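Lab notes, practical 5.
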Amino acid sequence: MCAVFLTFLAHALCAQDLVFAVNEGVTYQNDGLASDRFKSLISQLSKELKRPIRLQIITRYADFEHELAIEHPDLVFIHPGNIGLTATKSGQYVGLATAKDFTDYRARVMVKADSPLKSMADLRGKKIGVPALESIVTVMFTANLRELGITDAAKQFTPTRYQDAVPFMLDYGYVDAGVTGSGAVAKSWVAKGGRILAETKPVPIKQFLVSRRFTAEDSAKIQKLLLQLSESEEGKTALAGLHISGFVPWNTAVMNEASIRLGL
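Output from the prediction step:
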């Protein structure tokens, strides 16, 4: 009877849903139901792992940090690189891959064409428009200012939830400089005559992590699936849902350097 019970328990545990936690950033508006957009990827992961997977959308960064701290999610796709790096540094999660399109993600500082500001060091004491304070863009920018000896930069910030609102603050003189991580926003700013004062060093974002509870074999299976998504129609459908073109392997050296730079 004990043997039968243990067998039943093992099957029950295996059948429990894996939790796939997702955060796609706080400064961009969602353009569709995530449950629909992630359906193809979840189907493929579930098939590979032979386990049902439940999607958990976590919009607040503080909530995501808490969930990772208690090791609740099994699979993680996260936009803010600093939160992902903190989780991997703790050893609770393992980095498998990052979005191919976002390995060179950086904050860009925009100013008007006639601005007297010449370098990032000139931003001391100036009013600066930034995305949400918890945004990875603001975290990267703050880290760069800290390297220049500007340690109380938050006092200079005027935050806005959406990055495409930063140029508005510049246009109407609410701030002396504005910060964005969006290449499209920066390109549009330059096209209408604005300047890019400076850029921060890049941090790979949109990271895919797995819990340390996974065996090395299963982690390798997940990584292989992610890296090969662009090679099949089903995989391309999954990538389209994530709004990326593919994944590249986790680069430990690059990630360690980024963690140090961000002060994690």
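Observations recorded by the TA: The radius of gyration is 21 Å. The chain is about 40% helix and 20% strand.
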